[in-house]
Amino acid sequence: MEIREVPEGDVDQMVDLAALVFHQRIEKDEYDRVAWPARRAERLGAYDDGVLAGQLASLPARLAVPGGFLDCSAVTFVGVLPTHRRRGVLTSMIDRMHADAIAAGRPVAALWASQGLIYGRYGFGLATRAISMEIDTTRPLDLRTTPDPAPLRLVDLASAPEVLDPIYTRALSSRPGGLLRDPEWWAQIVLEPVDHEAPGYTEPRAVVHPAGYAVYRTHPDRTVMVIDFVAETPQAEAALWRYLASIDLTSRIKAPGRPVDDLLPHMAADPDQVAIKGDYGALWLRLVDVPAALRARSWAAGDAFVLEVRDPRIPANEGRWRLKTGSAPSCDRTADSPDLTLSAADLAAVYLGGTRLTALVRVGAVTEHTPSAATRLEAALAVPLAPFIHDDF
Ligand SMILES: CC(=O)SCCNC(=O)CCNC(=O)[C@H](O)C(C)(C)COP(=O)(O)OP(=O)(O)OC[C@H]1O[C@@H](n2cnc3c(N)ncnc32)[C@H](O)[C@@H]1OP(=O)(O)O
């Protein structure tokens, strides 16, 4: 088995392999749409006697972390032929992806997992969750927050990226976990004209407020489906929900991907009108360069810890690190005895502030050597708004 870059000419083979492993039927006229991430990405293939038997694509991206953005490999399009599974093909591709990310100076990698048991062994931790909501709009949606009265306007899809992107990017500064978008990303991931996984829905509509926007589709069965929703103030949030809830000839809103701390369940005068339908794991994060990632985020409290990190797949991360949090963070090797011992995967899970370190101690995954060290580090990791990934890539 040879792991090497996949040339542009083999992208159609990648689409075929993806269709095979994800059990999808892809019509010839859909190849361009499906192939878009693979064309844009750094492509790795596992070739068996010249035949593509496994693949992994990494989109160079920028991930919002507390206090800034980090270069990130956004991993997607992962698959191994059913004839070649469980022979270490994925493991080899992940090792190569890690080496490529280190060489490119990208301290983190991120992905959506098809199954929860795959990526922990490679040092990925589940760093964000999301909820799905359904809102009954057969009656008016009364809100406890006064909507910002600034006018709303619909924007056409061609100008939507330019109009919406500044609002989106500003929102990433207060809520980590999302990826910066460029116009092509907006067009392919957010404003795709037809969603093949949501048949019968219209093309996306975009409504904008000075401090927020909503992108949504509607269905003749009277459903409004929220694709992307960002508000910079609770009042703008209220204005956008009120708009969505009052569109004529509709009777429910489905919002399949919202932050776990979404305000609407608290904002609705009648909580029964807003049903939380699901809560699911979203972004898996990998700290490819642990000290660089720890130095790069901002911290909610100044403190100091010795972390003993276990990372068999990336030995450069393995060992003891003295982490100083606060306004000038530092992370350097030390021989001192540790306050906490944890895996690279669990460190990634808590890194964005969305997973409680004390819970990982309580389940026995993280070892606390110094009493209260986990409580103190959890306080330093805390973020005001729960991390959230907007895009399914
Ligand atoms: C970011 C994304 O694109 S997510 C999409 C991932 N792709 C899919 O789910 C498509 C269908 N599945 C596949 O293509 C393959 O089965 C893959 C990619 C999940 C795994 O590829 P493989 O080459 O079989 O993995 P590999 O042999 O390297 O497995 C390494 C270890 O992980 C384990 N493992 C791999 N996949 C799974 C899984 N789905 N569930 C549990 N364990 C798994 C293996 O058992 C093995 O464990 P071991 O070392 O203790 O024996």
From TrEMBL:
Domain N-acetyltransferase: 1-148
Binding site for acetyl-CoA: V78, G79, V80, R86, R87, G88, V89, L90, T91
SUPFAM superfamilies linked to this entry: Acyl-CoA N-acyltransferases (Nat) (SSF55729), SCP-like (SSF55718)
Catalytic residues (UniProt): Y119, F393
GO biological process, one term: aminoglycoside antibiotic catabolic process
The UniProt record lists the keyword Ubl conjugation: no
Keywords noted in UniProt: Acyltransferase, Transferase
Keyword Electron transport among record annotations: no
GO molecular-function terms, A-Z: aminoglycoside N-acetyltransferase activity
Pfam families: Acetyltransf_17, Acetyltransf_9, SCP2_2
Assembly with partners or alone: Homohexamer; trimer of dimers.
Family that this chain belongs to: Belongs to the acetyltransferase Eis family.
Name under which the protein is recorded: GNAT family N-acetyltransferase
Organism: Actinomadura soli
Organism lineage: Bacteria, Bacillati, Actinomycetota, Actinomycetes, Streptosporangiales
